[in-house]
Amino acid sequence: MKSDGFPFRSTLSFLVGTLMMGAACYLSLQVTSEVFIHSADPNWLTSYITGRGTEEVLLVLAAFVVLMTLGVPRQAVSFFCGVGFGAFEGGLIALLLTCVSASTAYLLVRGFLRKRIAKLIKLGAYESRFSQLREKLVRNSFRTVLMVRLFPIGSNVATNAISGAFRVPFIPFITASALGFIPQTLLFSMLGSGSRYINAFEQPVHIAGLVVSVMLILSMMRFTRKDNA
C-alpha cells in the first residue's frame, strides 16, 4: 500500500506546487506590469516609487523576488532599485532580493522538484554537459558557484537548479552567490541612479566594491587556468 500511495502523493505534491508557482507568477506579473512597460524611463520609475506607499513598494519588491526565481533578469531589478532608492541603498536592496530569489529557487529544486530536475539532467543530451560541472560543484562548491556568478554569461536559474539538484551545501552556495552577485548589482544600481545625486559616501563605496569585484574575477580566472592545466 505504501509503495502504491507514494507516487500519487508525489504527483499530487508536484501538481499543487506547480499551481502555486503559476499563481504566484501571474500575480507578480500583474503587480509589476507597469514597471516593466516603463522600465527604460528613469523619470517615470522615480515618480512611480515616490508616489506609492511603503506597502505597495514592498509588494512590488516581493513580486520581483518571485519573478527572478523564475528567470527574470536580476539586472532589471537592480536598475529599478537604483532608480528608486539610490546607488548605495538600491544596490543593497537589489542584492538582498537577488539572494532571496536564489535561495528560494535552490530550496524549491532541492525539495519537491529535485527528482524531476535530476532525471532531466541525466538525459543523454544533458548528462555530458553537466557531468564536469557536477564534479566541480561536489569538489569545491564555494569556488565553483562564485566563478559562475561572477561571469556575466550564464543563467542564474540554471545555476540555482543544478546546485539544488546536486545537493550543494546551502551555506557555500548562498555566500558564494552573494559575493558573485555584487559586481553587476552595483553596476546596474549605479546606472539606475544616474539621474539622482550620488553623495560623497556612496562614491568611494561603489568604487571600492567594483575594485574588489575585479580582483575576485581575476583570481577566479587564475584558479580556472590552474584547474585546466
Observed structural traits:
single chain, about 230 residues, mainly alpha, disordered N terminus
Can you tell me about this structure?
This protein has 229 residues and is mainly alpha-helical. Helices cover 83% and strands 0% of the residues.
Tell me roughly what share of residues is in helical segments. Answer: over 70%
The biggest sheet, with number of strands, parallel, antiparallel or mixed sense and barrel status, is: none
Based on DSSP secondary structure assignment, what is the total number of beta strands?
A: 0
Spatial extent as radius of gyration: 20 Å
Average pLDDT, rounded to a whole number, is: 78
Helix/strand structural class: mainly alpha
> What proportion of the residues form beta strands (DSSP E)?
under 5%
What oligomeric state best describes the polypeptide chains here?
Answer: single chain
**How would the global form be characterised?**
flat
What order do the helices and strands follow?
HHHHHHHHHHH
Q: What gap, in angstroms, lies between the N and C termini? A: 54 Å
- Which consecutive residue ranges, at least 5 long each, have pLDDT under 50? 1-6
Helical stretch tally: 11
